């Protein structure tokens, strides 16, 4: 994997995040993917289950801004640090760490940590 592949995947993730279109969400994952919404919970497994789980907790389009940096990548694994701001009143901010295992342009494992910044 190259950094450009990881950047493309993150861009597709962000598109899916904004659209909540099931096709956009499905395009991120292999058929047998595992999504760890928290590293200490059981994963959501399988593309269809991931799409359903995603849509259950979907953010509204335009509700967030997101910035990220690639911390490292190689051997099919990417590490991304992100910053998410929810445009609520008052705004809430989160720090994110993602570990993404890619097979070509789809993730077969995605582990995320998200921590809310204290007000």
TrEMBL record:
UniProt protein name: Nuclear transport factor 2 family protein
InterPro entries assigned: NTF2-like_dom_sf (IPR032710), SnoaL-like (IPR037401)
Superkingdom of this protein's organism: Bacteria
SnoaL-like domain boundaries: 10-106
A UniProt-annotated Pfam family: SnoaL_2
């Amino acid at each position: 994997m190259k950094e450009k592949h990881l950047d493309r995947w993150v861009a597709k993730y962000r598109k899916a995040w904004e659209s909540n279109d099931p096709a956009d969400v499905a395009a991120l994952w292999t058929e047998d993917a595992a999504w760890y919404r928290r590293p200490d919970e059981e994963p959501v497994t399988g593309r269809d289950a991931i799409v359903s789980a995603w849509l259950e907790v979907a953010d509204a389009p335009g509700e967030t801004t997101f910035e990220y940096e690639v911390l490292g990548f190689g051997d099919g694994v990417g590490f991304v640090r992100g910053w998410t701001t929810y445009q609520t009143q008052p705004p809430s901010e989160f720090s994110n760490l993602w570990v993404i295992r890619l097979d070509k342009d789809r993730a077969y494992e995605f582990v995320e940590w998200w921590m809310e910044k204290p007000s």
